Amino acid sequence: MKGIIQKGETFMTSIPKEKQALSPSATWKFIIPSLIGALLFLVPVSYEGHSTIGVGILVSFLLSTFGEWIPGFILVLLGFSAFAGLAATIVKPAFVRNSDMLRPIFIIGPVSLAIRFLGFAVGVMAFYEVGPEAIASRNTGGVVLYDLAPVLLTWFLFAGILLPLLVEFGLMEFVGTLLNKVMRPVFTLPGRSSIDAMASWMGAAPVGVLVTMKQYDEGYYTKREAAVIATTFSIASVAFSLVVANVIGIGHLFLPFYLAVSVACLVAAVIMPRIPPLSRKTDTYREGVGKQIDDTVPENVSLVKWGFEAARMKASRAASGKKLAQSGIGTVMDIWLGLIPLVMALGTAALIVAEYTPIFRIIAYPLIPILTLLGLPEAAQAAPTLLVGFADMFLPAVLGSGIESDLTKFVIAGMSLTQLIYMSEIGILILKSNIPVKFWELLVIFLLRTVITLPVIVLFAHLFA
Predict the structure, then answer these.
(1) From CA 83, how far away is CA 32, in angstroms rounded?
(2) Structure pTM?
(3) What are phi and psi of 52, to 5 degrees?
């Protein structure tokens, strides 16, 4: 690393005294929690015939054990979120008003309150199958209540509580130091962002976004870095990709299919940070928090040694187990009571637009000659699937399952995974966070990713399908 430092960094001739003075316990405080965190979030394991991660096994166990009761629990949760929010906002009891954890969850504005009641109303209609069919249908409100919300509920339960093992005890500092020389020039990002990508790739995309949200809120990512990571590195997991391939009918092509998705995502990850709107984000840290990371690279110290010392320093400053547990519970409550009603309301609205209106078919007309030029059979049927993914990532596979051509199905499934931005989950999660990305920017990013990754997926499709 000698002689190579990032802009704004300064040379140092030795490791700072405070790092040299760390006790041996700091080493174990880094190694043990970080190892557990890596095993839970980053290391792939085989479970019931498919690849997942440790947290994924916990999620699968909870879903399989209590799956039939979870939609009912979500309905109760939606009702509690709405009525407790209304009561707390009106009365403002002292125990809520004086709590840093409870106040932002329960004392909310009129728009947020309205969305919570709307989410509860949609949940009631979907659960009891009453009201307008467009809302209560199994293909709209039912998809969110029975398929999407339970996955979010369970993933964020374990991720919210266990995530400190991954981010609070030095693992990101260690990995970030080792990979900074690669991530900075290639992706314009710090090395620690590789952890976000791995958490998405091995587990689930929302977990990667949650990592990014927490790192941005705590001053470890700039506004530009957080926006780029959340919209570029929240890749679909291997397990979900396999589900998509099987649903659309190309499970027998999964290896070349996932290779195509990986290469296309890599190409997009190189290009997207260098073009608007992401390139126009400022490299400043969140207001009120400021920069909480030291990127200084000392001279004459190996990357491994420096990363190890940075990790030990981070671990030595980690909060107590009690405080981390409280923070984790606060994160879970915020997701359960704030995000899930939003997903229920807006996710259902997005699916209604996709299922009951011709909007996606109309705006997809210009794509038909392009797909025909690229040599895709059944281009007219395929065109809407390339845009409907903005509503939900799973919709293209469902709509494209009736297409006969493996080549076309390969492209549809691949594009649904490389576009990344979908409003039923990732989009809403990003908009609800403090990451500075607006709705119109998400739409532009979705379209840009479509343009960038389509030629790559088509090339692989012609080679293997």
Answers:
(1) 42
(2) 0.80
(3) -150, -165
